[in-house]
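Field reference: sequence -> structure
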Amino acid sequence: MDRPEIMAERKRNGFVSVADVIRAEGLAEAKHSAVIKSLKRGKLTVEEIAEDNDFPLDEVLKIQKELS
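Structure field:
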């Protein structure tokens, strides 16, 4: 494993590992699933869902429209 200062330098230079990409994709999929579940429950407003899931409001509205 690289030393923290080496990793910090790589990040500053835009280096992204495959693991970082996979992790980011997994996080995005999890957020998307959480938004869908929240919309289906219907207990929160779209604004609350966007804020709770750290998701853009326009994306939540788009997902809501697709579910309709």
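Note: The chain is about 75% helix and 0% strand.
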